[in-house]
């Protein structure tokens, strides 16, 4: 069964600290993996899109990694800021353009 | 560009009424997507269009839902009749391409059916 699981479900960290969010999937055959950031009350915003051949991709303080062999991805946030408080959603695309969504990780950054 | 535009931003209606949500994609984008988001089910893809043609509507929950894209700059998602379980935030997104291009989401329409 094609599934995407994210962990943790929620996370609270102090401003300035680093954190890592996980995304494990069973989707096959794999096409690409996307990470979105969604602020409360707003639409998701794309952070990264990774294909099979990409292991690491950065977008400012956000770094995504992909291990296609173990079917795992992580999103690392460096030197967190209050504005990083949001939900982070992992979406895996199956060959044939079928999308599978994780339920998201809710991140709260406190001063 | 103003980004993806959705209207209305909030809609409150009574069960049984028809609801129409509207979307204007970013100019030049060939793909348009309709999503639904709830606390219980998260983000779900309902349907997407390519060059105004519906490509995959397998996510549309039932016949009460219908979507159209009469031209490249306008799409509607209609629910008739509406039910309380349709209460959700509905997002429209657009993209240049399907595979490796990012999708740009609109601000969403919060629908409440009482």
Tell me about the largest β-sheet of chain A: 6 strands, mixed
Quaternary structure state of the chains depicted: heterodimer
Distance between the termini of chain B: 36 Å
Structural class of chain A: mainly beta
Distance between the termini of chain A: 41 Å
Radius of gyration of chain A: 13 Å
Write down the Rg of chain B: 13 Å
Helix content of chain A: under 10%
Number of helical elements of chain A = 0
Instruction: Work out the number of β strands of chain B.
Output: 11
Question: Could you characterize what this model shows?
Answer:
The complex is a heterodimer of chains A (111) and B (114). Chain A is an all-beta fold and 111 residues long. Chain A has strands at residues 4-7, 10-14, 19-25, 30-38, 45-51, 56-59, 62-67, 72-77, 86-94, 98-101, 105-110. In chain A, strands 2, 4, 5, 9, 10 and 11 form a six-stranded mixed β-sheet that branches. In chain A, strands 1-3-8-7-6 form a five-stranded antiparallel β-sheet, with no helix packed on it. The model of chain A has no long low-confidence stretch (mean pLDDT 95). Chain B is mainly β. The model of chain B has no long low-confidence stretch (mean pLDDT 94). Chain A binds chain B through residues 31-32, 34, 42-46, 49, 51, 89, 91, 93, 97-99, 101-104, and chain B through 4, 42-45, 56, 91, 93, 98-108.
